Amino acid sequence: MPFSSSSMQRSFPYATVAGIASIYLLTAILKSFLIPFYRSTDFDVHRNWLAVTYSLPISQWYRDGPWAPSQWTLDYPPVFAYFEKVLATVAAGVAYSTNSDNLWKMLDPLAQDAVAPQSVVVFQRLTVILSDLTLIPGVLLLCPSLRAPMKTLRYLGLLYMLAMPALLLIDHVHFQYNGMLLGVYFSAIGLMQRGKVLAGAVTFTLLVLSKHIFAYAAPAIGVWLLCNYCMVTRFYQPGTERTFSFRRFFGLVAGDPSLCCSSVTMVNCSRCSTRMFPFGRGLTHAYWAPNLWALYYGADVVLAKLKGLPGSAFTHGLVQVMDPTVLPPVRPIHALLATVVVYLPILTGIVRESGRPNGSQRSLLFWATMGTSASFLCGWHVHEKALVTVVAPFMLEIILKRDLHGSSRYVTAVASLSTLMMASLLPLLPDSLPELGLKWALMLFSWSIDCCLASMTSDGGRLHRFVVVITAAVCVTYRWVLPSVLPLDALRSAHANERLLRPWSNGISPGLLLRMLGRRRALAVVLGTPLDGAALETSKFLFQSVRYKRYRPFVRTPTPSQRALAQENWLKRRRRYGTPGSSKDTASASGDAEEIILKNTPYQALRLLRAFYNTDTVSRITFDVDIRVDLTRQSVRGVVQLPYGLKTEIRVLALCPDYMASEMLEAGRTTPASSEPLNKIERGWLPFDKVIALPQVIPQVVKLAKILGPKEVDAECTQWDCRTKFEAGCD
C-alpha cells in the first residue's frame, strides 16, 4: 500500500499540560536525591569537554594537547560538542552572576580541580535532569491516537521513560546524557511515522551527529523509507503496482548531506573519525556487554582452563586488542560481516511488509530497534550501557500498544531482555553501602515493572518469572556465594568491612588493594618522618607484604612472631632513613614496633591514606607495592591523583599601559598590551591566579571589579616593583 501522509495521523497528541508537568516534576525530585551519590570518570570526562569547547576554537576540539588528557579526549560527534559548548556558555553566565570561582575553574581545562567541587557537581547533575525534557515530545509523538484510552497510556509511557531504572543508574548516577538522546530518537521516529518524513530525517541526522551509536538503526530506517515513502501508487490507476518516486528520493537525501558536511568540515575529519571509531580498543569493553562476543570469549576461557593453558587477559579489565588463547582471533572485518549477516533478515522483513496495509505493518520504531539490537549483538567494542537503546524503545512500544494478549511472546522476550540488562549494569556502581543498596533497589524496581508487563500477556508471565528467578540466582551466586565458597579470605573480609571502609570520591578501593596484594596478605603501612623544616612536606609510605596463616582484619594483640617481625622492620627502616636517638632504648623500640603492628591491616592502612588524601600542602608520596603478578600474562591498572600537579605554578597576569609593553615583555609577559586582556576578561577569560596592575591602568581594572573579585589584585606597586613581582611569579 502506498505511503501517504493521510494514512498517518497528523494531529499532535496534546495531553494535559498539568499532568505532564506533574510527572516531570515528580521524577525530577526523585533524580535530585541522586546528586550526592557516586559518579564515574565520565563525570570528569564531560567536565573536561565543557572546558575544551568553551576555551578553545572549533579547530582545536579534536586535537591532542595539555588541555585534554588521553582518557578525557572528546570522542563524540560535533553536534554533541556544540551541545557541550551551550552548557559551558550557560555555566559561564551562572558563574558571572553568582561570582563562583569553581565554575570558572571548570571552564578552564588547565585549572580544573582534581576533585570536582560541590557547585560543579550540582550544575552538571542539573543539566542531565533538564535535558530529559526531550523525552516529553518524543513519547507524545509516538502515541498513535488521541482517544481517551490512549491518554492513560501516554502518561504511563512518559512516566516509565522519565523514571526508567536503567536511565536513572546510567545518567543520574554513573553520569551520561542517554535520556536526552533517546528523546531526540523518539521524536525523529515519531515524525516519520506521522508523515513528516523530511523533518524526521533531519532530526535523525542531527541525532547521529550527536552520538554515532544511533547509526546502528540507519540501515533499517533507510530501507523503511525507501519502501514506504519513496514507493508510490498512482491513484488515478487503481490496481497498478507501486513505482519508485525519484522526486521523493532526492528530496529526502538533499538536506542531510549538506547538514552533515556543514558540521564536520569545521573539524578535522580524520581525527574525529579516529576518536569515534577506536578499533585499537579491542573487541570487548572492560565490562563485557551481554552479546555474542561475550559468549565467544567466555568459551575461550573455559577451553583454556580445560586444556591447562595459561589464561588470557580478557577478564582483567584491559581495553586493548587481545587474541583468544584457543579460538581464532576476531578482527573488525569479522564483526562487520557478522553484523551484516544478522541484519539482512531484518531488512528482508521490512521489504516484505511494505506492501501490506498500514494496519497490519509493524511500526518503524520496532524495525529500527531490531536493527540496533543486531548491531549490539555482533558489533565491535560495544559497551554494556548501549543495551538501553534496545530495551527502552521496545518497552515504550509495549506500553503504548493497547493489545498485549496477541503478542505474549514478544512482551515476554522484551521483559526478559530488560531483566538481563539491569543485571549487566550492576558493575557500573561500586559495592559501597549506599551505592550497593541503590543499585539493588533499582534492580528490584525494574524487575517489578517487567513482571507487571509480562503478567498482562495471555500466558500470565510464567516464562518471564522463570527468567527473573534464574537471573536473580546467577547474580546472588556471583555476588555472595562464590566469594564465600572460594578461598578468597581477603576479598571476603573487604566486603565485610565495606560499612567502615566507605570509599571516598575517586579514592582507593579496599577491594582493589586487596586484589593487588593477593589473598591472605595484610598491608603494613609505615609512615616516615617528613623533612625537618622543609617547605616541601615529604611523606613516605612503605608498603610491605606480610603473609599470615589466616587473615584477620582487626588484629589488636600481636603474636610474638608478628612483634618480632615488626621490630625487625622498624630497625631496618631506622638504618635506612636514620639512626634512632640516644633516648631511644629497646623498650621504646619495642613499643614503636607494637604500634606499627597495630597498623598492619588494610583497614588502618586505608584510614592513614585517607588522612593524606585532601592535604592542603604540596606533598610527595612514595610507596612500593609487592603485587605478585605475572606481568607477561596479567596487567594491573590504577589511578594516581596529583591534585597539585608535578610542579606548582602560579599564573600571574600583569596589566600595564601600552607604552610599557616592551619593558613587560622583557620580564616575561606574553601579551604586549593591556587592552586585549581586559577585553578578554569581560568575555569571561580568567586563566590566571593573581593580577598585578600598575596605577595607570586602575581605572580600566575597576570596571572589571565584579569579575576579578575572587582574584588577588595588587595595584599598589611601582613600575620596578611590578616587574620584580612579576618575574618572581614567573619563577
Automatic annotation (TrEMBL):
Subcellular location: Endoplasmic reticulum membrane
UniProt key word Endoplasmic reticulum: yes
Broad class of where this protein is predominantly found: endoplasmic reticulum
Metabolic or biological pathway, per its Swiss-Prot or TrEMBL entry: Protein modification; protein glycosylation
Biological process annotations from GO: protein N-linked glycosylation
Membrane topology: Multi-pass membrane protein
GO CC list: endoplasmic reticulum membrane
One Pfam family named in its UniProt record: Ribosomal_L1
This enzyme's EC code(s): 2.4.1.-
Protein name per Swiss-Prot or TrEMBL: Alpha-1,3-glucosyltransferase
Gene: ALG8_1
